[in-house]
Amino acid sequence: MIIMAKKAKKTTKAKSKRPTKRGNGSTEKKIEGLATSVVEMAHRQQDPAIAIPTRALSNVAFNEKTRHVEMGENKQSRNFFNYGQAKRFMQTMLVASKCKDLIELGKTASIRQIYYLAKHTIKGTKEKTFDDQSESDPIIEDLEVAIDSLREELHVFASNRGNLAGYITLVDAGSTLDCTAMGSAGYAVPSICEPDVIQFKKCDAKFILHVEKDTVWRRFHEDRFWETHKCIISHGGGQPARGMRRLLRRMHEELKLPVFVLLDNDPWGYYIYSVIKHGSINLAYESRRMAIPDAKFIGVSSFDYDRCDMTDDVKIELDANDVKRAKQIANYPWFASKRPWQREIKKMLSNGFKMEVEAMISKDLSYLTEQYVPMKLKDKKQWLD
Amino acid sequence: MIIMAKKAKKTTKAKSKRPTKRGNGSTEKKIEGLATSVVEMAHRQQDPAIAIPTRALSNVAFNEKTRHVEMGENKQSRNFFNYGQAKRFMQTMLVASKCKDLIELGKTASIRQIYYLAKHTIKGTKEKTFDDQSESDPIIEDLEVAIDSLREELHVFASNRGNLAGYITLVDAGSTLDCTAMGSAGYAVPSICEPDVIQFKKCDAKFILHVEKDTVWRRFHEDRFWETHKCIISHGGGQPARGMRRLLRRMHEELKLPVFVLLDNDPWGYYIYSVIKHGSINLAYESRRMAIPDAKFIGVSSFDYDRCDMTDDVKIELDANDVKRAKQIANYPWFASKRPWQREIKKMLSNGFKMEVEAMISKDLSYLTEQYVPMKLKDKKQWLD
C-alpha cells in the first residue's frame, strides 16, 4: 500500500501511455501498446513502468447501477528499476509476449502451459524466470486487468466444465450443434466461449434453468425437462467455471433469455448465486462480461421445508462454518439491502439445517422435475432476486 | 473375518439359490431372483441370508491369463437373524428394490439420489434406514457383486467426466454424433456407456490416444491430432471415471482399436495406467468389463528427459510420498514381473524428479503433438506394456 502511494505519480505516467480504452482495438494491439509504452519510456531514459489495477478486496465495490461487483480505480505501478518489482516486471512482459505468440498462432494454452512456455533459465545466471505456477497465475491476472482483456482474449484457457441441453443450436469451432440431440451428457461447454469460437444460430428456448451439479442436471435431462418447458438446462459442476458463466451471460444478453438458478440450500449455494448474478470478488474485473444481474434464484429456499412438506430425511445439520459463512453472505452489500434475502438466510439459520437439491427426490424420483421446479417457475413470489 | 469363517456354511446355502450365472437373464431378473431366494428361505423357516462376495484386498488377485485384477471366491453371508447384520440385510434389500424401480421406470439415479430415495424412518421407530450416504454407497457395491451386475446395469450413475474427439460416429440416447464435429470441448462421455445407451455407427479411426488431463487433451484437439493421425483422442479428467473406462474398453473390443495411454511421469500416472490396463483393486469385480490388458503406455517415461533432451525446467522433485507410492506400484504383481517397468520406475527414483505431460511443451507449444507423440507411436521399443 505504501508502495502504491509512493508510485502514484509514475503510475499516472505509465497509465497515460496504455491504450486501455474498452473495445478500442484488438487484444494483440493492446499487448503491442503495452510493449511500446515500455520501450518509449526506456528511450526517454525513464524508469520503464506499467500500471496494474489493484486486485484486492480494498479495490472492489458493488456498483448499484450496473449491479456488478466491480474493481475500483486504484492502481499499482510495476517498475523495472525497483529491486522488489524488477522480477515481476520481467515476468509480466514475458507472459504478455507468450500471449501475443498464442494470438498470432491462433492457438490457446492452459495456465499451466503458459507457465511451462515462459519458464527458462535467465542467460548467464542460475535464476529461473518462474519457480512455480503460483508465480505465473497472478501475472496472467495482472495482464488481464492491465490491458483490460479477458483471459480468453489472451488465448489462455481454464479447465472446461459444465454441460447443457435444450432448444439452442450453436456453432462451436465451425461445427453446428443442435443441443436437443447431443447425447446423454449433453453439449460440453468449452473453456473459451467468446464470439469468435461460439455463435448462436437458432434458439427456440424461452428461458435457461441452471443447476449446480451434473447429477441433478442428469435428472432434468433424463426427464426431458427442456422439452416439456421449451428451455435450456445447464450445470456448472459446482461453482460454474468462466466458460459456463460467459456462455450463460451471452445467451442471456444476446438471446434475451431469462436465467433461473437452482442450487443447494446452503451458504455455498447462496455464494454460487451471488457470483452468477453479480460477479466474484476475486475476479471483479470480469463481472462486466460475466455477471447476470437479472438472474433469479428459484430454490432451494429455507422456506421449502415447510412449503413442500418435506420429511426430516432431507435435513443436514449446519456446522459452525456454515453459520459463519451464512452471516458473511448476509452482509454482502448486494444482499444486505434486500429484505427477502435477509429473511431467507435468517430462516436457514433458525432452521439449523441445510438441504440439497437432490434431497427433494426423497419424495419421488421425478418430484423435482415434475412438481417442484414447475411450481417454482409459476409462482414469481417465490423467486429471490 | 471371524464372522466370515463362522458363516461359511450358511453362505453356501444362500449361494445355491442365487441366479448369478453370468449373462444369465436381465439385471431385473437377477434382483427378482435375489428377492425370491430370500422369500423362499423364510417360507422354509430358515434364516434369510444373502451371499456377498468379499470386497477386500485379501480377496483380490491378478489373473495371469486374463491379465485382469479379479475378485476371488470368498463370500460373506449377510443374515436377517443376526444382530450385527440385520440392518445391512435390510439396507441391501431396500437398495435392490429401489434399483428395480429404476429399471422398471427406465430411469437412472446418482448414488446420492439412491441414498435419498431409500432413506426413511422405519415405521413405529425413530430409526432411519440410512443415516448417511457412506452407508448406502457400499451397499450399492455389495449389490453389484452379489447379483453380478455392473452399477450401470442397476441404473445407477456416477458423475460424468471425460471427453473425446476423432473419427468415430456413435449413437448416444438416440442421437447420432459425429465426433469429428462436436465443438471445442468434444463429445462429453456420459456416466453410463452400456450398449443400450451408446452404439457405434461408424469408425474410421486407427487407434485411440488417451491422455490424462483435459488441458492436455485440448492441446491435441486444437492441433487436430486426430485428423493428422486418423485416430480418436480422449481424456478422463484425471483418473478416468467408470463411463470413460467402459467406453474405451468397448471401442477397443468391439472396434478392435489399439489404445495408447499418455500420462504424467509420476506414480499417479503409473497408477492410472495400471487401472486402465488391469482394473482397480477397489472395484476388482468390474475389471472383466472395463480393463484393457492390451493398452500400451507411451509416455511420459523417466528416460524421456535424456531421450528428448529436456531442460531442467521440466523437473519436479519427488517427495517422500512419491517415492513410497512408486515402490508400492513397482511391487504390484502385474508390474513386478516386467523388467521394462522395473527399469522405468527405478529410473524415476534415480532421477529424483517427475515430469508432467504439459512440461514437454516447454520446448515448443506443439512439440507434444507434432514431435513427441508421433515419435513415440512410431517406435514400438519405447512402449511399455
Question: Please, could you describe this protein's structure?
Answer:
- The structure is a homodimer of 385-residue chains.
- Chain A folds into 2 domains: 156 residues, Arc Repressor Mutant, subunit A (Orthogonal Bundle), CATH 1.10.10.10; 220 residues, Dna Topoisomerase Vi A Subunit, Chain: A, domain 2.
- Chain A has 16 helices and 17 strands.
- Chain A has a 6-stranded mixed β-sheet, sandwiched between helices. Chain A has a 3-stranded antiparallel β-sheet with strand order 9-8-11, with no helix packed on it.
- In chain A, helix 4 crosses helix 5, helix 5 crosses helix 6 and helix 10 packs parallel to helix 13.
- The N terminus of chain A is likely disordered.
- At the A-B interface, helix 4, strand 5, helix 5, strand 9 and strand 10 of A face helix 4, strand 5, helix 5, strand 9 and strand 10 of B.
